Amino acid sequence: MKVAIVDDEKSIIDAVNVAFEFRWPEVKLVAAQTGREGIDLIKRERPDIVILDINLPDISGFNVLKEVREFSSVPVIVLSVRSDDADVLRGLEAGADDYIIKPFNYLTLLARVKAVLRRSESISLRERRDATVSPRLKIDFINQRVTADDQPVRLTPVEYRLLVLLARNKNKVVSYRRIMEEIWESAFEGKTENIRVYVTRLRKKLGDVPPSMILNEHGAGYMLKG
């Protein structure tokens, strides 16, 4: 298991390293202190998950995340002192899988890392190897590959999990509550903005704009039309 952390504060890198050494010693931690170094590190080391600070000395962590998403679907947890909803949504829109506000408890960080990895690895492989979900969409469940209009589509773990959930319930509305509980393992508190962000990203990657595959049932949830 390899974890990459990109943060300009060496004290945070050292503290995260100590936390892993004591609580998860089999993890190898690799680190960078600038955005450009972080992008090169992720390309070179191909970590299983990335912990990414937003406030970096050279380029914004948001820009790092956007560049990483051009070549990798690795799970990313964003760290930031910014707690505004707009900044959280910006991180999610850029492709983050989770968002943690500084200062944070290091044991909580490890728990969130494990949760993100668990969600990304827990896709059931019991379906048929290849399924035509709709005339335009196919999913290879064994290799976790998606094609839309016969073109490969690169999805992040959260996007893939969301698509699989909708595909398993094709032509049925999946409630906001169920999406939150199954994709993010958190209780639904009436807010649908995070779900909307991921559905928007998913539609864009699938070429479903304007939407004809993933439809919204206002006030209820989303449905994948077969």
Could you characterize the architecture of this molecule?
The chain folds into 2 domains: 2-121, Rossmann fold (3-Layer(aba) Sandwich), CATH 3.40.50; 130-224, Arc Repressor Mutant, subunit A. Helix 6 (157-168) crosses helix 8 (193-206). Helices cover 41% and strands 22% of the residues. The protein is built from 8 helices and 12 strands. The strands form 3 sheets. Strands 2-1-3-4-5 form a 5-stranded parallel beta sheet, with helices on both faces. Strands 6-7-8-9 form a 4-stranded antiparallel beta sheet, with helices on one face. Strands 10-12-11 form a 3-stranded antiparallel beta sheet. With 226 residues, it is of the alpha/beta class. A hairpin with a 2-residue loop joins strand 8 and strand 9. The model is unreliable at 123-129 (pLDDT under 50). It has helices at 10-23, 35-45, 61-68, 85-94, 106-121, 157-168, 176-183, 193-206; strands spanning 2-6, 28-32, 49-53, 76-80, 98-101, 130-134, 137-140, 145-148, 151-153, 174-175, 214-217, 221-224.
